[in-house]
Amino acid sequence: MSNSRAFSDLPPELLLEIAEYLRPRSFVAFMMALPSLASIMPKRLTAMEGRFGTVLGYMAMDRGSAEICRRLITRMEIDVNIKPDYWGSRALTTAMTRQHDVMVDLLLARPDIEINYRDQQRPLLHHVVNNRCIVSLRKLLARNNLDFNARSRWGDSALTRAAAAGCTEAMELLLREPGIVIEPDQRTWANKVDSYSREVGTLDTPLIHAAAQGHRDIVRLLLPLAHQTDATGTPLVDVNARCQYRGRTPLIRATLSRKVAVVEMLLEHILVDVNARDNKGRTALSHAAHMGHLPIIRRLLARPDVDVREPNSRRRTPLGHAAAKGFFTACQILLEHPDVECHARDSTGRTPLMHAAQSGSVETFRLLLYQCTNGEEDWTDRTGRGAWDYAHLKRHTEMMEIFSNYQIDQQAGSYDEDDAMDEGDGSNDSDGMDEGDESNDDDVMDERDD
Q1: H or E element, residue 342
Q2: Domain boundaries, the chain
Q3: Where is the composition biased (Acidic residues) (predicted)?
Q4: Fewer CB within 10 Å of terminal CB in the chain, N or C?
């Protein structure tokens, strides 16, 4: 193959006979060595298929094939829309994702080229967006017959793919298109996709994907569209849309992903429901308390309409979640809110104090014990166990001692809360914290006190 001069001396008939015995990859290399063959190559040979696609597909993989592309693709008898029978993509898909601009231009110049087809269950536009091929995307959007709302087998759109991938430039280009559908009609597609598709979120809105991945620029693009409506009066973007799998809103997804900046952006939007619940009844504050993420907890509590007593489906409050994990500082911040209910029972009858006894955090246990004013420390759950019982069951001797001393002091009337709290204020958990730095999420977590 390297000695192209020797082959060029052979008659064309013999060269074509040699080409008959070549596999597609070698066939393309043969034509690249002898570009003049592309002008006379029979149509049936150009339709050969190899392991990873057709001859045109192999040409699209190599940007060095520009010369044979000019000679072969301009021949109108050549089928440029041929689809591989086994594996691989069409030539246009490969050329665009491999950024073979010469071949892309030649293919798009063909009047018979198809652009609204599917490769591997996804439209061409999806492959272009997934690979961040902005130049090819501009060329596709310039065509009048492109279906930019086409969806994959799993129900997601090109706009959804761009939001999930964090491709801001693609989002900007797609949002400029008149008639673009930003959010899918979940009722229409819910019965057309399988359970796996719903679990991975293919029917979720672009805002949900962008919030979960922390793509701030895309969130910033989408939020203003919540104030605009379509012809039916429906907002273009629903800032409280729920994902298909667990019913979580963009705010909850951003909270779970610990994307502080995105949470802050969402909370500044007037239409965001800070108390929205997922399928398990958990709010964003419940999730933040469960994780002990102090910056997000503080930002959520700063909203005047936040409900710190909102329980989940098992009636556990955010304070109960934080206590169950033994997050001292998270409990301390929640207790500072005037509307907090210190001794709210969940569906098992347990209070935050009982959860703290199980968690093993001595400081959290002491903090919640000091909130007892009317004998709440003696309450029991549905099994008949109280805070002391759980401390005894877990063999937390220090908790048992604190509890016993507390009861003795209460009975003697010499209990002084301020003196007791001096033993452990936990203030070092949040000192020096950079709340706005998302790159060190582990540093802002309220670690369990073992």
Answers
A1: none
A2: 1-114, 274-450
A3: 415-450
A4: C
226-231 long-range contacts, Cβ below 8 Å, gap at least 24?
226/269, 226/271, 227/271
pLDDT digits (tens, 9 = 90+) for 135-172: 999 999 999 999 999 988 888 899 999 999 999 999 99
450 is written with which tokens?
A: 């073992």
* C-alpha 348, offset from chain centre: 34
**C-beta separation of 250 from 241 below 8 A:** yes
CB 157 within 8 A of CB 129: no
Bridge partners (DSSP) listed for residue 69:
none
Q: What is the DSSP letter of 200?
A: H
Under 8 Å CB-to-CB from 223, ≥6 apart: which residues? 207, 237, 239, 265, 266, 269
> For residue range 62-90, what is the model confidence (pLDDT) as tens digits?
999 999 999 999 999 999 998 886 667 89
Place of tokens 């094939």: 65
Distance separating alpha carbons of residues 195 and 209, to the nearest angstrom = 18
Mean pLDDT of 105-115: 96
Q: At what angle do helices 168-175 and 158-165 cross, to 10 degrees?
A: 150
